Amino acid sequence: MRSSVIIATWLSFRGVQTHALGPFEKNIAARADHLNIATTALKPLLSQNASVILPTDNDWDALQIRGTSPRIHPKFNAIVEPATEADVQKTVQFASKFGIPFLAVSGTHGWTKTLNNLPYGIQINMRKLNSVTVDPSGNTATIGGGTLQWEANKVLYAKGKQAVLTLCECTSIAGPMLAGGHSMLQARHGYTLDNLVSARVILANGTAVTASSSSNSDLFWALRGAGQSFGIVTSLQLNVYDIPSTWTISTFIYRSDKLEAVLDAVNKLDGDAMRSQNLVINGVGTRIPPMDPQNPMIIYTLSYQGPEAEALPYFSKFKAIGPITVKPSTNVNNMELYKITQNSVDSAACARNKNSMGSGVSLPSWNTTAARAAFNIFAKMTADRRFSRSVFLLENYGMQGVRAVDPSLTSLSLEERQYPAVANPTIWWNGTAAVGQADAEAYGEQIRQALFAGLPKGAKKHTYVNYAVGTENFNQMYGYDTARVQRLKTLKKAYDPENRFGFYNPVPLA
Ligand SMILES: Cc1cc2nc3c(=O)[nH]c(=O)nc-3n(C[C@H](O)[C@H](O)[C@H](O)COP(=O)(O)OP(=O)(O)OC[C@H]3O[C@@H](n4cnc5c(N)ncnc54)[C@H](O)[C@@H]3O)c2cc1C
């Protein structure tokens, strides 16, 4: 009897949410009684510090805002903030039992539009699970499933440690890690997922398991490359390393006619087996009207974890290309790093509630003709005032550590393990107008097709799962290796036969 009331309640919300509610509307109040019935059934199952938040509650609006809203707006009609692993488990059991869709939210920076397919349901907001403890061995840390990058960095730094964290302070640890985790330390230690020792995971059927090389090893394999499709990570154990040194950083700003020269220099460095694993190369195309009112500029930041004397030979190659400004920074510690590389929580990159869209392309090297064609489209797009603040990311973080990992150990695609160059036009614009979104998507797609046109013969199109727009096919994100993708699909069927984890660039069941 009780069950049927709850089911009826949630089904009635589905109708309301799908047809009547926009992402920021609160006119669900008329249904508040029904929501209360449903959540009244869940609330007593949760621990004291857990919360259940409804559209009529004060916190509701703030918890709808994402790093990527309003473009990305999964439709929620209740939010659960678990405070313990058991809370996550009970919420998933409750939702699964009654067929209520749900989605884990940690850093809110997921930007694939497949997230908008959540028709209605529960936001499982992981932010109360935000702990970081360096384990007694000093070689690993145990990190809560809702922890953000800056929170982990702060604790680790205080202990003289660093981990393979991603570049922006505002994303979570678990979100990027589950499909990769591009990092300033990847050239030494591999992607974030290569540093995962074990994870506690809530499966679709509500069981809580440990995944590691010795426990549920199939799941552990799938988690590291396609993790968002397999479960909710409540905590994870990650390798940590002693901080070896401060960073030496130099930022070079070039006029756009230097694009080919800069990309040639990057290709040469990437092809050099002796390229230092301490070096990170980070490029951005962006408009700086006072410097050039007509064309976007090209900014390259070279970061080297080590002394200036070791970094200078690399910096001199970029200086020789003829930047119009050079800004050096020495002795940069791990807390200052994000600010200097413009990836801190208060940076433009971390701005919230501003449409942002990636359109990722991973490449075996830069084809300068294709890059010029793509850059010209970027220049045209940013001449349009709506998109003028967009940036064109040109990333080469170094691949030695990534390639050193046996590819059979993780489900990560072979392309993601090999391709050193990542381009990601990151398009920002304001407003909710459909035309803005359609134009942004069209520009993003034109830019990436221009880059793909320069692929060497036989190379396949690849997009990093976490930089996908949400229009890519399965193979473009998860790879073309038949055995690997078949294993992923088989495991998906075994672990999540109802496709409950089906909203983040999902692995299909068949
Ligand atoms: C500004 C910005 C900077 C970025 N920088 C980097 C970078 O440096 N390196 C890089 O590799 N990627 C980067 N990305 C891409 C990033 O990896 C993805 O956007 C990622 O999904 C963000 O995770 P989140 O937790 O912040 O976002 P959320 O939207 O909260 O989560 C994204 C998805 O991850 C899943 N998820 C979240 N938490 C959990 C959990 N605890 N257990 C299971 N599943 C979970 C859910 O499916 C969720 O929909 C960046 C993106 C943006 C917008």
Automatic annotation (TrEMBL):
Keywords: FAD, Flavoprotein, Oxidoreductase. Its cofactor is FAD. One of its GO terms (molecular function) is FAD binding. Gene3D superfamilies: 3.30.465.10, 3.40.462.20. Residues 72-243 form the FAD-binding PCMH-type domain. Belongs to the oxygen-dependent FAD-linked oxidoreductase family. This is FAD-binding domain-containing protein.
